[in-house]
Amino acid sequence: MRHIISILMENESGALARVANLFTARGYNIESLTVAPTEDATLSRMTLVTSGSDEIIEQITKQLNKLVDVVKLVDLTEGGHLEREMMLIKLRAERTQREEIKRLVDIFRGKIIDVTDTSYTVELTGTASKLNAFLEAVNEELIVEVVRTGPSGIGRGPKGLGL
Amino acid sequence: MELSGGDIIVQCLKDEGVEHVFGYPGGAVLHIYDAIFRQKDVQHILVRHEQAAAHAADGYARATGKPGVVLVTSGPGATNAVTGIATAYMDSIPMVVLTGQVPTPVIGSDAFQEVDTVGITRPCVKHNFLVKRLEDLAETIKKAFFIATTGRPGPVVIDIPKDITDPGVKIPYHYPAKVKMRSYNPVAKGHLGQIKKAVKIMMEAERPVFYTGGGVVLDDASKNLTDLVEALNFPITQTLMGLGAYPGSGKHFLGMLGMHGTYEANMAMHETDVLIAVGARFDDRVTGHVKQFCPDATIIHVDIDPSSISKNVRVDVPIVGPVKQVLRDMLKVVNESDKKPKKKALDKWWAQIEKWRSMNCLKFDRKSKLIKPQYAVEVLHKVTKGEAFVTSDVGQHQMFAAQFYQFEKPRRWINSGGLGTMGFGLPAAIGVQMAHPKATVAVVTGESSIQMCIQELATCIQYDLPIKIILLNNGYMGMVRQWQEFFYDSRYSQSTMSVTPDFVKLTESYGHVGMRVEKPEDLEGTLKEAFSMKDKLVFVDIKVDPEENVYPMIAAGKGHHEMYLSPGSELV
Questions:
Q1: What percent of chain B has pLDDT over 70?
Q2: Is B204 on the interface with A (CB under 8 A)?
Q3: Looking at the complex, does the CB of residue A139 fall below 8 Å from at least one CB of chain B?
Q4: pTM for the complete prediction?
Q5: Which end of chain B has fewer CB atoms at under 10 Å, N or C?
Q6: Kindly report the CA angle at A149 between A80 and A67, in degrees rounded to 5?
Q7: Which of A66, A72, A161, A163 to mutate to test the interface with B (most CBs of B within 10 A)?
């Protein structure tokens, strides 16, 4: 099963490498990983998407917790949560295709953020499955480039992951 | 007090109570070595290879419970130490390793003797640091000792660029008495509710067995374990790392378990209904095939490290906490319980165990004209009255030592269990002897292992270390040869070690005493003579039966109940 693990860790050089290292060293799956500083400059927030049996996920969270740089973590998939990913996608948009692409972008509530005579660059935000659906909907031959951030997640409700 | 980085390091070590540092100088640590030169409180032991520095510090830590300290230079100094660091990591040994690094302005430029030490050591340390500011140095050292010695212990590396130790730059010195880390909080106490739940299951047990490991030794919980085992009248088996925590001659002891464990220990594991695992990590050499592991057992597991629990084998009652405290509380709950262990069922269980014991699975040919390695270890036990600190290398001799040198006390059996590092024994003995100058320290080794760190004979003469080296010389990498005999139709590919130096002459050339024994009847006399030389290192080259094998043996991937007991025997 797919799990989204959200990690609060010391904003120190090497912290990211420790996490990445752990996954390769122990042979765990890592689908995506995003990391950025938080409102507290000494902390970074990492969102990590992985998959595995319950036993493996249990080990992953235990091993992550064991890392000295990890302050706190939560498996978001254990409860209600929100997940968002952003995608930038460059499409070939010649005269005959422009209207069709524009309509599709509107349906997915995306934005066209760069335009040339022959191309559109689209910004799209949503769950990973929504982004996948857009990629399926658009004519494959028109895709020039796809850039995805990987999902970020947050728990539902008033509580936050903090110190 | 204003101090330079080099002096800060030495002062921190003093304030931490460090008496010995094992190391080797080099360019990036010259300032630190100059600081060492200018004081007398911290003794530096100069090894002959950085791997040995790490092993010696490791041996020191295992024999004392105090953290071992290593000091090596950048680049090759650090990479040479990696084997020793990984050895300590696998066996959870507290160690602080100071490595030199090229000056901060040139880090990343492929400078002379530069290597990414933090990157290279990351997978084999509990934690590591790169000190980027002089102001952080003292606190980082404090953190390193704190992390290395608390929770599940382990090695911590501090990488120190040369400019940080510049004698020209001084700052006020302050060594924090305590350090708090929001991201590092080892569990202080095992949950009483879980302990009660475990005791309830133990009181209902009909075929219980304790399976205990290195965690009991590391937490100095030997007495607590012994008291609990005796209060319950349960049998106990110990892992390679756990030997000595419960006395080897104790009547509840079944011997070691696992791949080369005793018949009674492994059969008890297979038949048990309640397994109480304490400070042990269900290593593959212990469990055999996990699918066949303790098929009927409810498993209780006490461990300080939550990630050890249910890692390899699903556990029913986990208790995360320090082994000593949990065992103490467990005994209290047992004593206060209105229930008693099931006497009738236990009597029946013990009768079964005695039947297994009567197989006498550690028997060997006592009439052989050749010296049997098992016999050599028995004689070593006799001559040293079972009181020696015994270090070992890795292979058949290690298993013979574990099986035949009955360890009565913890911290006496010092070997590389997890990583299985050949070359560990002699340098580890250096650490042990430095920690206990008056104690008898013996290295049980093989002719292949000893050659991996033999240069340390020079260190031994320099510091007058009267270590006794017991070489079980069979002319093979014995364990490799045994596997090739069993599983590769005796094709002894590259496992013959017929070309060795004359160990007696070699030892003498270093300034030590060398002896050789070839006949069983000469063995005891020679070892007595060797151990009577209290102030000399004696290297005893014992020619043993070249083709003796270690039994019992569970082949990889087999269950506990499937053992080979003797040559040509079927699985039992």
A1: 99
A2: no
A3: no
A4: 0.96
A5: N
A6: 70
A7: A66
Name the residue type at position A130.
Answer: K
Q: Are A81 and A159 in contact (CB under 8 A)?
A: no
Helix (H) or strand (E) holding B542: strand B538-543
Per-residue pLDDT at A23: 95
ipTM of the complex: 0.91
pLDDT for residue B569 is more than 70: no
Average pLDDT, chain B: 96
CA distance B279 to B92: 11
Of A14, A62, A68, the CB nearest to B183: A68
Q: Is B184 on the interface with A (CB under 8 A)?
A: yes
Which amino acid would we find at residue B170?
Answer: K
Report d(CA A25, CA A59) in Å as an integer.
13
Burial class (CB in 10 A: 0-12, 13-18, 19+), B522: middle
Closest CA–CA distance from residue B119 to any residue of chain A (Å): 8
Reply yes or no on whether the pLDDT at B572 is more than 60: no
Residues 6+ apart with CB under 8 A from A8: A38, A43, A44, A45, A70, A71, A72, A73, A161, A162, A163
DSSP-derived 3-state class of residue A38: coil
CB B298 within 8 A of CB B201: yes
Known catalytic residues of B are 50, 112-113, 162, 479
Question: B311: closest CA among A42, A148, A149, A61?
Answer: A61
- List, for residues B243-283, the tens digit of each pLDDT value: 999 999 999 999 999 999 999 999 999 999 999 999 999 99
Distance CA B31, CA B331 (A): 52
Q: Is A41 on the interface with B (CB under 8 A)?
A: no
Contact by Cβ (8 Å): B409, B222: yes
Is B307 in contact with A59 (Cβ distance < 8 A)? yes
- Are the CB atoms for B344 and B213 separated by under 8 Å? no
Spatial CA neighbour of B40 closest among B65, B58, B13, B72: B13
Evaluate the omega torsion of the peptide bond into residue B295 and state whether it is cis, within 30 degrees of 0: no
Pair B72, B23: CB distance under 8 Å: yes
Distance of alpha carbon B290 from alpha carbon B312, whole angstroms: 7
State how far the Cα of B93 lies from the Cα of B89, in Å rounded to an integer: 6
**Span B458-503, pLDDT tens digits:** 999 999 999 999 999 999 999 999 999 999 999 999 999 999 999 9
> What share of residues in chain B are helix, strand, coil (percent, to 5)?
40, 15, 40
Q: Residue B181: list chain A partners with CB under 8 A.
A: 68
